[in-house]
Every structure is written in structure tokens, then in C-alpha cells.
Amino acid sequence: MRIVFYCQHVLGVGHMFRSLEIVKALKDHEVILVTGGAEVDFDPPANMTRIQLPGLMMDAKFTRFIPLEEGAEVDEVLVRRLRLFKEIMAEYQPDIFMVELFPFGRKKFRFELLPILKKVRKGEYGKCKSVCSVRDILVEKNDMKRQVERVHGYLNPNFDHVLVHSDPNLVRLDETFPGVEGIVPEVHYTGYVARKPDPAETQRLAAELNLGDTPLVVVSVGGGHIGRDLLRGALAASPILNETHPHRLAVFTGPYAEEDEFERLQAIASAHPHITLKRFTKRFLAYLDLARLSVSLGGYNTTMNLLATNTFGLMYPFLQNREQNMRARRIEEKGGLKVITQDDLGPERLAGLMRESLDRQAAPLNLNLDGGPNSARILEEIHAAM
């Protein structure tokens, strides 16, 4: 089976890494991952070919495109992207065309997705099924009636299946998308897409860090476009905590943290031998597996990492939309983490919360975290039925 998988990230890196976990689960199949956001450092799976479209990001309000090529004009980039995209589809003639998030989100990218989807429907790329891959919680809109009509208008004529990467025991799609009953393509719940820790990798990291009995606290903010206040709060709280509870603090600012802010945080960290600060690590899951406590934003992937490693977390949800807060609050109710707010980020207050949380155990939630393998199985069944 050959799959062309389109994934466009515009703010964080969660969409990319969730998609990569699905690609890894499709290890017996050929996957062409078509991306179009900022570069992300990762080790590509052996079964995957990555093709990067001319880069686009969006402004903070998600209203306009920002070309990633210096001096490039937006309209020219859009033309080049669509031309290359059509060439990719014509060359690879996939059995499955899978699209991450659209049309539940990424509506600005319909300029390139709708022409491709319509060509798939006409059979111009051979016998091919179109599949939408969507997370558990969708961003709220001011006019949900119009949003539902828009999604139905793009989804129903162009897609055959929808994969929802959620466990309905925690969050159902209809809780944030009231138009589920009007969806024509078959909807499948896959469970949450969560990478499982590798015990050997965790052991190697433990030997390198030489922690002994010293607890490890991991601080992270995903891609690094947001979360500056959390990073600053944790760096100020850690020395206070260290006076009574010696620990090691590993801070990850995210690959997209601004250079001047990274240098400012690095200067703070370097004054304290128990603190290390990096932009990014490919071994983040091993760090969490070793950690006694996580302090983080509440993105999908970070949350799944906590659940997969059974690590207790202080979680500071990004409040621009409901996604992170809703998911975090649900898990907090079940004892899996504690939600913190802006009022908790003062050094003394955060140090106290970290102190209380160091000895807390995350309650087992018994959620389905096999979204990667389940997605692969569903796609195989779709292909077999073609």
C-alpha cells in the first residue's frame, strides 16, 4: 500500500510528530509525507519519503500566510506549492491520500487541498481513497453553524473516511464538532496516538545523566512559539525548590524559541549547576520516562507522552483556544495531572506546587493509547476493501 500523507503545521510541532507516529506504525507500507511548514528535526522512518513544499507559516491570528523563503511573494509561493503537489500525486499514484486536520481546520490551505481532492475523486491519480486524520478536540469558532456547514461542504464530497485520534471515553468528536451526525464519510476512533518509551533508551539516558537518587524535573513548551512565561517561572522556581528538595531540572525551550529569549534563559540556567537548558531533544520521551515531574504546556503530544510514561505533570494550558485546557481538565479530574494557571507562575508559588507534586503518582487512566497501530490497521482494511 502506498500513502501520500499531507501534514501542514503552522504554530507548534505536535501535528508533525503525531503524524510521524502513524507513519511509523505503517512500517510495512510506503508513505510519502508531504509537509509545508518550518523545518523540524527528526529521524525519518525507513518506510517514509518526505517532500517539503515551499514553506508557509501563518501569523498569530491565523489570518495571513508568511512565506518562509526570504523575499518570496505569497502568491508566487502558492502557485509553486500547488504545482509541486500535483506533480507528487501524479508521480506516486497513491492508494490512500491522507490529510491531517483539513477540513476541520487549516481552511486557508484549501487553495491546494481542494484541487488535489477533486482530482482524486475524478480518478486522475488512479484508484485512491481520501482519508481525514483529526485530533480529539477542535478549535472553537464564533459561528459554529457556519463552521459545520463549511466542514460538511468540503468533507462529504471529497473524503471517504475520518480517523479521530481520540478515546471516546475521554473526549468525543461531537463535543467540539456538533455536526457529527451530518458527516457522510465513515468515522473511526483510533485511540490516542502516543509513542511508547523505549526502556533501553531510557536506561542509556539514565547512565549519561547519572542521576542516582536525585529526582529529575522536565520543563517543556512544545515548539517554542509560546510558553515564555512558563519557562521563566520554572527557572525562577527551581533554585527555591532546590534549597529543600535537591533535584535536576532539564528545560527544553522548543526549536522555534527566539534567539534573544533563548540566550536570556541560557544565562539564567548557567548560573545554577543543577539546571540544563536546550532547545530540543530527540530523546524527550526518555527524559519524561526518567522524570519524577513534568512542567509543561498542554499540547496533544506532550499530554500523550505523560500518559505513556505515567509521569505526573503540572500542566499550563495554552488558552487561546479550548483544546489544551479541555483535555487537561478532563485528565486532571481522573488524577493524571494538575492544571496550573498564570497565577501559579510566581517563583514561590510554583516552587511550592513543584514540591507538592514531586511525590505524586499519576493515576492510571486506562485510555486507549494505541492510535498509531490502530490507524495503520484501519487504513489496511480500507485498502483491502477497495
From TrEMBL:
Q: Which domain of life is it from?
A: Bacteria
Q: Which InterPro entries match?
A: Glyco_trans_28_C
Residue span(s) of domain Glycosyl transferase family 28 C-terminal: 219-360
Gene3D superfamilies associated with the record: Glycogen Phosphorylase B
Q: What is this protein called?
A: Glycosyltransferase family protein
